[in-house]
Design brief:
about 625 residues; alpha+beta; four-stranded antiparallel beta sheet; three-stranded mixed beta sheet; globular
């Protein structure tokens, strides 16, 4: 292809897919430098990813959110962004969109590696402890809510250039809870990045307005838009990309790849690219952080900014270790023997001891560049295949790439890694936990659930750095009115687990015997054993979750209550039994007992109706 300005071209969004496609062309004829590729494993990979999406979302695939920062803010099942928006009484949607873009942009920029020892302890009544990307998301949310990024006393919920230019390392360190005992990697660099952001926002008035607000880009985007038939405004994703790559260009550190004096950012030479042309033709661009930012800010702009984006298909998969690890762990990508040996030699320098040796490489090495390019290409192949496997290709529920990233490839990469290398997971979490006894027990249970979970249940930690918060899914038991339902819940474990039981909470509408005073339709007809209660907020109250020992009210025996020999698996099986086996002899809702006894068909109809409601049907 003829390119008159290679440096500018390599910074465009289309260039990412066009250049990585050249590496995929080499892969299809098995002429890569660092990897062999086994396409016989592709169908197995499709099946694995599709099964995860089915497990978590079937049949309501349209409800899968697009990949972005929003979900990280909601770690632990807490809808923090919705709560924040609800607290802004009287604020119009345009200003809400601006505020969220302010927040999301800063949060994504702070989303660099947190290191292996740092966690953020959430203040207030939620009191979660989170690490890595999710921890940084929650930490940045509090940095924003505390008004530390705003110079406007009348609106603390904004980010502006004046506040950012004057922000200090000490301010950021305190806000992110950095200390010698809780070290966050790169604190000075994070503060300097925010300062550089302040100067960039001040300089690019066209994009960010006179106050230097990231959210002001909404005004610029609306100025480039065309009206659409639904009352919204259509904006090209390419325009958002230009704001990110041009407007934020001064904040990026100088990349190691420079072409004609222009720093290309996240773009690297690759030996599997054409080597017989000009220098630029050997380079493959990724722009992973910029793409992560683009994915993230599109969500609030669409939801509150009256915008519909055209050209989302220009975005690519994100070439990071979860997505790329999926293809390695599924056996689709195999390191060539000589490259594998070099990786093992590198491993010896860091002392990573595992049951199976793990090769290690520097991030800018040719093997990693090739791997990242293959990740983008394989994700493009995976999307249509998963849609076909789910039987939604060509329908209104057909997944877009952003949904595949969110619900399938990233999660699949995490799950297959934990299954193949649980000892690394255990070693990492145990090393960084202050509650090793509880973590070791939870890790043991997690390994068992990964390898041999009973049919109908799945569970695991929401975040790798916080083993005390789990997410779980319970399928409605077969041959019951609940069949076909999928009921998500969270488990929160105490620090003295397994001496004390976890707390369980459903995150969807759920049935309980005292529903008459809470629900006005289906739930009042559901009868369960009276000790099997789901409260209004979703909290589950069953015998196995009650504190050990005798019941002071003498309704339960000690053997029915929690003891350290119980487990997550037994809890989830008990909840499945709660759904499958109502007990009308001691029901708390007399009317519901009558329906169960006298009109089983009506009971079944109402249960099935709520199952469909839960599935979004």
């Amino acid at each position: 292809m003829t390119v008159t300005d290679p440096a500018s071209y390599l910074r465009t969004l289309p260039a990412v897919r066009e250049r990585t496609r050249l590496v995929m062309d080499k892969a299809k004829v098995n002429r890569l430098t660092n990897f062999d590729i086994d396409f016989t494993k592709f169908d197995e990979t499709v099946e694995f990813v599709a099964s995860i999406i089915q497990r978590d979302f079937a049949p309501n695939y349209s409800k899968i959110p697009p990949h972005g920062r929003w979900q990280h803010f909601d770690v632990g099942g807490v809808s923090r962004i919705e709560r924040l928006v609800d607290s802004w009484s009287g604020v119009d949607d345009i200003e809400i969109a601006k505020r969220l873009v302010d927040l999301f942009l800063v949060s994504v920029l702070l989303d660099a590696g947190a290191g292996n020892k740092w966690v953020f302890s959430e203040p207030g009544n939620m009191a979660g402890v989170y690490g890595r990307s999710e921890g940084l998301a929650v930490a940045s949310l509090y940095l924003f809510m505390d008004g530390l990024l705003s110079s406007n006393p009348s609106n603390p919920y904004q980010v502006d250039s004046t506040a950012l230019k004057s922000i200090t390392v000490d301010t950021v360190s305190k806000a992110l809870q950095h200390s010698s005992g809780n070290p966050l990697a790169g604190m000075e660099g994070r503060a300097e990045l925010l300062q550089r952001l302040g100067y960039a926002l001040e300089k690019e008035v066209k994009y960010f307005g006179p106050d230097g607000r990231p959210g002001y880009m909404l005004e610029y985007l609306l100025g480039t838009s065309t009206p659409s038939g639904d009352g919204k405004n259509t904006v090209s994703v390419a325009t958002v990309w230009d704001v990110i790559m041009t407007g934020l260009n001064p904040i990026w550190p100088k990349g190691r790849t420079v072409l004609n004096g222009v720093s290309l950012g996240d773009a690297w030479p690759c030996s599997s690219m054409p080597q017989d042309g000009d220098e630029w033709e050997t380079i493959v661009p990724f722009h992973k952080l910029s793409q992560w930012l683009c994915y993230s800010i599109l969500v609030p702009l669409e939801r509150y900014g009256s915008i519909t984006f055209a050209g989302k298909e220009l975005q690519t998969g994100l070439p990071e270790y979860r997505n790329g690890g999926l293809f390695v762990d599924m056996g689709l990508l195999i390191l060539k023997p000589e490259i594998y040996k070099q990786g093992i030699a590198n491993n010896s320098n860091i002392g990573l001891v595992t049951q199976d040796a793990v090769p290690v490489f520097p991030a800018d090495e040719d093997v990693i560049v090739e791997w990242r390019a293959l990740t983008i290409g394989l994700l493009d192949l995976l999307l249509p295949a998963v849609n076909e496997r789910l039987e939604i290709a060509g329908t209104k529920d057909q997944l877009i790439l952003a949904q595949l990233l969110e619900a399938g490839s990233w999660k699949g990469g995490r799950e297959i890694a934990a299954k193949k290398r649980p000892e690394i997971y255990i070693r990492f979490v145990s090393k960084n936990s202050r509650n090793n006894t509880a973590v070791r027990r939870l890790m043991t249970e997690y390994k068992q659930l990964i390898s041999e979970a009973p049919d109908g249940i799945s569970a695991g930690p929401i975040d790798e750095d916080n083993f005390f918060e789990w997410e779980c899914l319970i399928q409605g038991p077969e041959d019951t009115p609940f069949e076909g339902g999928v009921f998500p819940a969270t488990l929160t474990f105490p620090k003295d687990y397994p001496l004390s039981p976890p707390a369980m909470k459903f995150t969807c509408d759920m049935f309980h015997p005292n529903g008459k005073s809470i629900w006005t339709n289906v739930v009042e007809y559901i009868v369960l054993n009276w000790i099997n209660v789901v409260y209004k907020d979703g909290t589950v109250c069953i015998s196995i979750l009650h504190a050990p020992g005798d019941d002071p009210n003498m309704y339960e025996s000690a053997s029915e209550r929690w003891s350290p020999i119980q487990s997550v698996e037994k809890i989830l099986i008990s909840v499945m039994s709660m759904l499958a086996e109502p007990n009308d002899e001691s029901g708390a809702n007399i009317d519901a007992c009558k329906v169960w006894r006298n009109d089983r068909a009506e009971y079944n109809r109402m249960v099935k109706a709520n199952v469909r409601k839960t599935l979004g049907l």
